[in-house]
Amino acid sequence: MIQLKAVEKTYRTDTIETTALNGIDLNVAKGEFLSIMGPSGCGKSTLLNIIGLLDTPTRGEVLIGGQQTTQLSDKQLARFRNQQLGFIFQSFHLINDLRVLDNVELPLLYRNVSARERAELSKEALAKVGLGNRMKHFPSQLSGGQKQRVAIARAIVGQPAIVLADEPTGNLDSAMGNEIMDLLLQLNEQDGATIVMVTHDELMARKTHRLVRLFDGAQVNDHYLKNAYA
Amino acid sequence: MLKNYFKTAIAVLRRRKFFTFISLFGIAFTLTIVTVLAAFVDNTVSANYPEVHRDRSLYITLLKQENTKDQGQWNSPASFYYLDKYVSTLKTPEKVAISSFFNPTNAYRNGRKLAVNLKYTNAPFWEVMQFDFIEGKPFTEQQVANGERVAVISEDTKRDYFGNAASVAGQTIEVDNQAYRVSGVVKSVPVTMPIAHADMYVPYTVSKADYRQPTLMGNYTAVLLGRSEADLPAMQAEYAAVVARVKPEAKGFDVFKSNADPYLSSFLRNSPFGDTDDGGVGRAMMAGALILLLFMLLPALNLVNINISRIMERSSEIGVRKAFGASGHTLVGQFIVENLILTFLGCCIGILVSFVAIQVINGAGLINNIHLTINGTVLGFSLIACVVFGLLSGVYPAWRMSRLQVVQALKDR
What we know:
Chain A: One of its GO terms (molecular function) is ATP binding. Chain A: Belongs to the ABC transporter superfamily. Chain A: This is ABC transporter ATP-binding protein. Chain A: Keywords: ATP-binding, Nucleotide-binding, Translocase, Transport. The structure holds two protein chains of two kinds. By secondary structure, chain A is of the alpha/beta class. Chain A contains seven helices and ten strands. Chain A has a six-stranded mixed sheet. Chain A is globular and about 50 Å long. Chain B is α+β, with helices and mostly antiparallel strands. Chain B folds into two domains: about 1-45 and about 280-410, no CATH class; about 65-260, no CATH class. Helix content of chain B is about 50%, strand content about 20%.
């Protein structure tokens, strides 16, 4: 489903060159739930951004669903992200000016989906994350866990093949974190979504199928926790 | 999609009320000035009382004699002699009004000096112009031919000279040391309509100057009234043929030029824009649009700055929208629409303020007898100016915002 071939990412300024990723080769199978761990600054989020086509590699190739992505234009990338990818961020990144339902509708806004269908699909997604009764609320009226549920609903409303989660439980207490993790596991098991999650939490990572560890931009460990995808 | 943009735009406006106030104030103030100016230009240029037939009228306001050898040029209105000989005799117009530009003179009443703008006219002047007679009637062809000292006075002159008298038709008014019998009183015309405006209208035959003098240059204009707008090209062609036969009268001058033009062109013809087939209307409109654009540029730049700071506050939103499928073009579209919504709100306030400002201007009598209105043309122009303003102030911030990298935008939260 996801193929990374010799991916490198280097940040350059006038005086310094920093290698964030160094020769990453990674294959993620369809339906797999992969977690990425490593110390701060090791390149986890950079890797996730490159998989999510939010950033471009300095060298190497990124293929999603067999499609080469490095040559796509801004418009093609936008369409690709819209149809294939869903994002969950550590700090939720909800639009505070819009109500919960409008936030969830966002990915559908950039497809040719009628307002009525958008509303129906968004309500379904919100019901799935247990927030069917918070549609008219604004993000500022929700708890952290509820905000992350809304973010998950937004990520799944367009039924993307891949969900990318950047420390989805990082801003939540353990109880809330577990609830969110259960939701992601349910999404993976019941809906068959391929999920790539960056986390600092070993316990959360151990619930996934596979754990990849990074250090100083390099892949130092790739360990299958459940045999189905080994 | 538009509903979502609208919701976001309104939410953003409500979030930073001071910025919103500054933005709306700037837009409304600019649009108010533009609307009042548009109302003034519309009032001056459009067919208004008493020149209600401008659409089927041609104006001869200027003669030109040129010395091509020495690059000399002599421009002046026409003499009565010229207009009577070459214009009154044209076959294609239905009627030809001849009148002088108004001459400032004085009248005295109860030891008080009154400034009176005096205009000499022929009798068809009253048929070409559609004056409202409050009392009495215009002077006749016969009275003009007889050189009778009769006058049509404006309502203002009646009030200034005769006070509160109920009726003044038949009474005597003394202007420029000459006594005239008042034939009629008409509703006053503002000075912004120089062909029709005067405080007192008298037959050209009572002029102290010799109207029979066979000279080309003078102080008269002619209005050629066609039966319909379709007659205008034929009237222009006939007049052009007549002009071609007229020889310059001044020594050394070898070219004689004059045009029968629609109202606006007749005045622009003598301007730096005037040397074109349309009498300079196109160039004048371009110049006007350019000046308007420059006028709107300063508040637009101010709004650009405010918009940039507002948009940059929304970098997280931009990042999220891009992550979930908005292309740069889509976001440019969204922010332009949002800015147009803001501009439209400012425009609505501006038009409301304009209504008030125009009432104040009309009531204050800054220009006597002018009655500005916000009609469909003025409203349409204001809306166009509003859209231009919205685009001027919205495109650059939107473009800059669309260039934000998603990762950077999400980090800037």
